[in-house]
Amino acid sequence: MHPILTRRVRLALYIAVWVVFGLLIAVVLAYGSGVQVVWALKFAVPLAVLLGMQSLSFWYLVQSMPPGTPLVRMALSWFGAGTVVLLIWLALAYGWAMWLQEPGQTYPDSAIGTIPLLVVAGAIGIVFAVLGHYLADAFQRSRAAERHALELQVHAREAELKSLRAQLDPHFLFNSLNSVAALIGQDAAAARQMCFLMAQFFRKSLTLAREQAIALSEEMALVETFLAIERVRFGERLRTRFDVAGEVRQMRVPPLILQPLVENAVHHGVAHLIEGGEVRIDARRRDGLLEIVIDNPCDPDRPPSRGAGVGIANVQARLETLYGNRASVDVDAADDRFRVSLLLPVEYEETDSTAPGIGTAHA
To answer: CA 177 to CA 12: how far, in whole Å?
Structure first.
């Protein structure tokens, strides 16, 4: 469909431009040919609007001859189309002039007297109409190219996010299976309990991972399930503390964004301490952003990690893909403490909740 006809505002502006063009023709008629002003306005303005309506057909010729079409073909086609439109318009103009001319009038002496001016004016109007349609086509093609580029970016981002998410399950499963294998020979009941909790965790994570973002309260529930799995292995050595402000419970976060960080806190922190340690998670609003902090003790003499560093790198890549420079990951690695701080844009669930926060919990 013609882009001008898709919106009333565009059509109104288009007609207004041709009305102004008609007023210019009327001025030339009135002062150049001695025609009365009223007659010139009645004659020129409707005629100019008529030329504008005829020129709408140029859109389809523009579509068939975009920039890059051989110059000879474009010149011949436009000369032929412009000549046909101009001849039809002149015939209608002559009839319109005769219709407006009353018996005994001395203006114009003959309707034929307006034809030279109309030829020049019509040619000018057609040229500007063609150029205007090419500009409109260029604008539309530019918008279409921008939309296509944005769609490609979205698809690329979704593919990257799926790839990053796909890293989490095998990484977590590998570590968990090692834990199960270590428990089977020592405590078969504990190994069975861990397998049951793992099934619960994967069921929840697979459901929530389909979403682009989930409430922080749901993410914390996943973290609690994960820590319950680890507590089967570490027992009283693994302690936890959650301090989540009530105002941030319904803020939206990417699913499974905390799990790899908590997993690192357990396997690279608490696991190396004979007396164990406490994994602490704090969440609150700070300077218009959502701040989540994961803090854990670590052994300064712990052996170097044999892992591939998937956890923090995965979180950084996901946040950069989702939020760009609006989110950040800050790592503070001291001798006996390890602290990861996330800053995310504030986004709320559609249904606001005033439920109290998780508050301070111990385990």
So the answer is: 70
Estimate to the nearest angstrom the gap between the alpha carbon of 45 and the chain centroid: 45
| Rounded average pLDDT per 10-residue block, the chain, 363 residues | 84 93 90 79 92 91 86 90 92 84 57 76 92 89 83 64 54 70 78 82 73 88 87 87 92 87 88 91 93 92 60 82 88 89 83 42 50
12-19, Cβ contacts within 8 angstroms, sequence gap of 24 or more: 14/52, 15/49, 15/52, 17/52, 18/48, 18/49, 18/51, 18/52, 18/125, 19/45, 19/48, 19/49
| Predicted pLDDT of residue 278 | 94
DSSP for 98-137, please give it. Answer: HHHPPTT--SSS-GGGGHHHHHHHHHHHHHHHHHHHHHHH
How many residues appear in the chain? 363
Cβ neighbours for 348, distance < 8 A, ≥ 6 positions apart: 250, 251, 252
**Listed residues 149, 181, 200: the one ending a domain:** 149
Asked if residue 317 belongs to a domain, the reply is yes
Same domain, 143 and 245: no
pLDDT of residue 101: 73
User: For the chain, what is the domain count?
Assistant: 2
Look-up: residue for tokens 């307006």?
A: 114
Give the amino acid at 300.
P
Q: Are residues 55 and 141 in the same domain?
A: yes
Whether residues 101 and 232 share a domain: the answer is no
Distance CA 69, CA 8 (A): 32
For residue 55, what are its two tokens?
């020129």
Task: Give residue 12's domain range.
Answer: 3-149
Q: What is the pLDDT of residue 131?
A: 92
For residue 340, give the CATH number of its domain: 3.30.565.10
What is the rounded distance in angstroms from the CA atom of residue 142 to the CA atom of residue 199?
Answer: 50
Looking at residue 345, what is its pLDDT? 92
Residue 182 lies in a domain: no
Residue the block writes with tokens 């405590």: 187
C-alpha–C-alpha distance, residues 12 and 223, integer Å: 59
User: What does the pLDDT read at residue 137?
Assistant: 87
- What per-residue confidence (pLDDT) applies to 189? 82
* End residue of a domain, out of 149, 171, 187: 149
Alpha-carbon span 41 to 31, nearest angstrom = 12
Q: In whole angstroms, what is the distance from residue 167 CA to residue 46 CA?
A: 69
